């Protein structure tokens, strides 16, 4: 029996970076509805002590001082990319057939009792290498 978790790190930020490569390697915060507070942070933003739920008005100086990039949340984009992510996982594993042993986690995350068709020696963290 094999267990796997497939997780896209900082999914909302990763989605924003996919469509705006200028956001790579810079601090990014994705904001809640009405752009009131932080709901997702890049690793760079986390290193600047930005916490989930921090209100934007309390971070204005830090945002300016460190060049933190802000993005409004785009739930349609995230849902579409999550559907694509799950389709890729289903195409390259038996996760789709393993229900109910397989479950969806948060957006950008899937886990379960699976047997991947991937040679463990040919991939590493952060890469997907279908056989």
Automatic annotation (TrEMBL):
InterPro entries: DNA/RNA_pol_sf, DNA_polymerase-Y, Rev_trsase/Diguanyl_cyclase, UmuC. PROSITE patterns: UMUC (PS50173). Residues 3-103 form the UmuC domain. SUPFAM superfamilies: DNA/RNA polymerases. GO terms for biological process: DNA repair; error-prone translesion synthesis; SOS response. The lineage of its organism: Bacteria, Pseudomonadati, Pseudomonadota, Alphaproteobacteria, Sphingomonadales. Belongs to the DNA polymerase type-Y family. It comes from the Bacteria. Keywords: Plasmid. This is UmuC domain-containing protein. Signal peptide: none annotated. It comes from Sphingobium xenophagum. Gene3D superfamilies: 3.30.70.270, 3.40.1170.60. GO terms for cellular component: cytosol. One of its GO terms (molecular function) is DNA-directed DNA polymerase activity. It holds the Pfam family IMS.
């Amino acid at each position: 029996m094999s267990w796997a978790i497939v997780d896209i790190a900082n999914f909302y930020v990763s989605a924003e970076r996919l469509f705006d490569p200028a956001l790579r390697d810079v601090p990014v915060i994705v904001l809640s509805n009405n752009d009131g507070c932080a709901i997702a942070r890049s690793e760079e933003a986390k290193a600047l002590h930005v916490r989930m739920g921090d209100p934007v008005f309390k971070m204005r100086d830090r945002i300016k001082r460190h060049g933190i990039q802000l993005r409004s949340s785009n739930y349609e984009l995230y849902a579409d990319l999550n559907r694509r992510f799950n389709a890729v996982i289903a195409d390259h594993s038996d996760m789709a057939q393993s229900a109910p042993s397989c479950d969806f986690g948060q957006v950008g995350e899937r886990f379960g009792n699976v047997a991947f068709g991937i040679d463990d020696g040919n991939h590493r963290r952060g890469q997907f290498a279908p056989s």
